[in-house]
Amino acid sequence: MKEATAATKTAKDSKSSPKQNLEVDQAQVTVGNRFCENPKMSMRDVNVFYGDKQAIYDVSVDIAKNEVIAMIGPSGCGKSTFLRSLNRMNDTVDGCKVEGEVLLDGDNIYHKNLDVVELRARVGMVFQKPNPFPKSIFENIAYGPKIHGLADSRVDLDEIVEGSLKKAGLWEEVKERLHQPGTGLSGGQQQRLCIARAIAVSPEVILMDEPCSALDPIATARIEELIEELSQNFTIAIVTHSMQQAARVSNRTAYFHLGKLIEVNPTEQVFTMPEHQLTEAYITGRFG
Amino acid sequence: MDSSNLFLLMLALGAVAFYIGRGRSLAIATPLGGIRHLHSLPNYYGLNALLWCALPSLIILVLWLIFDEPVINGIVMGSLPADLAPLTTADYNLLLNKISNLADGIMSSKGQPASLIAVADSMAGLRVISQWVLTALCLILATIGLYWGWYKIAPDFRARQSVEKVMENLLLGCACLAIFTTVGIVFSVLFESIQFFRSVPFFDFVFGLDWSPQTAIREDQVGSSGSFGAVPLFVGTLLISAVAMFVAVPIGLMSAIYLAEYSGKTVRTYAKPALEVLAGVPTVVYGFFAALTVAPFLRDLGADFGLTISSESALAAGLVMGVMIIPFISSLADDVITAVPQSMRDGSLAMGATHSETVRRVVIPAALPGIVAGIMLAISRAIGETMIVVMAAGLAAKLTANPLESVTTVTVQIVTLLTGDQEFDSPKTLAAFALGLMLFTVTLLLNIFALHIVKKYREQYE
């Protein structure tokens, strides 16, 4: 975190021409290293529309296996929309249309033969506000394994629940009260419960949509630690409002602006030597 | 002066008070440099004067109207000469009625004993005096109030707060009125029931298995002494309600799920009100639909399968009642299902659950308390429903669990006990009140249960 703030400071000092052009070029091309070899997911010319309104313009980017990619940008820049198009959660939104290719291990997830149910089991999601089901802690975790038939016996299920809670760092806190309602936990615990719920079906990718924005700093720190641990086994795409958080948890950072992907680079580079003036303007706090 | 004229006069005086109060506040404000130097707007001063002027006298007027007659009656009956003094309550009421009619001049005084006419005259006199005292009292109060409202007007008088306080109390009064009415109904039913339980033991009524309320009116009449076992009625009620819920719960719930989860916006905007129209059909229409269409149809259908279905059956009444109740369940369930946060559905869908899995395993459980509350309200409605059952279920108080037979319900029996020429203090009529009380208790308990669940539901997502 110190590194990041120091970085933003130096960036501010070096380039401080106040009248910078903050408009997005129509022919804007994403700068930086957006592609990689053997990507877990790759997006090509993704456009997302809500009715007549276009929310995402020609985004192409790769997500490597086991990396943590952070998506930052001002409010309304489309980062959440983009994230939700990665496991087709946008399907539930009326009038939402996605164009372009989103490949998971080389298969287009928008192909008409694709099974959305299976896709979402492989690409899990954690939401902005903790949304545990009004069931017991155990049932919350067991929900996914049950619907996907991952457990053959009660013992299997117990194991999955315990393992998931351990991975989410919640086991010690809740092992005595597994059968009490999940809604009775604190906000931070609820969010870790939701993460545990997501990893209970062993997804390959976990999408996180501002997972800490409803949490206090201590709970946030706990989740960030968790993200770091999880990155050993999962590919994680996280949308965040906090630049410090992006700096702390991610390997690469993608900067979105008005529906366009402006820059993708290793996190350190984005926060020390941003390639694009818009990125720089954002991370130095000139708008956002 | 006549009470209604007095009432109008008070209102007129109030209006005058409003303009006087408003005028005075303006008169005070102008030399100070405008109404901004007053604590409240001129209208508030006017309203304050109005309330002071009209409210006390109106309250007195209402109280007077309530207590005027009993007091006069008491005085008159107390002053009766010894030879007229009544012996029984019935005589007392009869005599009072007679005197009252004489006093009003409705009854000709020809042929009445002189002492009675004297009493009637004194009653008429008292009434005139009472009316004059009332008029004077109201006018005096109104004048004092008007003066007080006028006198109080000063730049720093807080007329807004003062008016608001009165308004608050008026609202409270209205709320109390509704509650007192309910309490009044309960007590009136309760007292009549107690009278009933004097002649029929409580446990015979609550646990008795035989219902035939035909009592002999005259000594020499042929007829049973009447037995008042309420069990067959409650069994009949429950049987019909059960049939109704059997129809209404699945259909109502499933249509609610369809409307809330699957239907498009257009379908929903048209289908939901259309479904709710079912609740607006008068029950008597359902009644003859049940009696003339459904019951014969069922009877003929049963005959085809070799079943004997009586032409007045619990089944017919229950089915139609179920249709009537569908909107209660569907509408309430639709509301609670829609109220389940989208984040719950998102959470489930993001786990890879299908839409129907999400509905079954997350949405319905989350909405369950609300749905149950809706079902409870629907049951209360089914138990209290009368018209359909009167027309389609029959009058025979059979103790049976077979929906193909005709049964009768509590409400139907109340109707039959209280319609027609009745002797009002016989156990037969009083039984209606006891039944009413029991029915009230049952539905009250159900409603409390439902409210309790609704309350629990409200705490769900915190």
Describe this structure in words.
The complex is a heterodimer of chains A (288) and B (462). Chain A has a domain at 2-14 and 36-109 and 117-133 and 203-283: P-loop containing nucleotide triphosphate hydrolases (Rossmann fold, 3-Layer(aba) Sandwich), CATH 3.40.50. In chain A, 36% of the residues lie in helices and 24% in strands. Chain A has 11 helices and 11 strands. Chain A has helices at 2-14, 79-84, 116-122, 137-148, 154-167, 171-174, 187-199, 217-230, 243-249, 267-272, 277-283; strands at 31-32, 39-50, 53-64, 68-72, 96-104, 107-108, 123-126, 205-209, 235-239, 252-257, 260-266. A two-stranded antiparallel ribbon of chain B has the order 1-2. Chain B is 76% helix and 1% strand. Chain B folds into 2 domains: 3-157, no CATH class; 227-458, MetI-like (MetI-like fold), CATH 1.10.3720.10. Chain B is mainly α and 462 residues long. Chains A and B meet through helix 3, helix 4 and helix 7 of A and helix 11 and helix 12 of B.
Query: Domains counted in the coordinates of chain B: how many?
Result: 2
User: What is the gyration radius of chain A calculated from CA atoms?
Assistant: 19 Å
Structural class of chain B: mainly alpha
CATH architecture name of the domain at 2-14 and 36-109 and 117-133 and 203-283 in chain A: 3-Layer(aba) Sandwich
Per CATH, the superfamily of the largest domain in chain B is MetI-like
- Portion of residues in helices of chain B? over 70%
CATH top level class name of the largest domain in chain B: Mainly Alpha
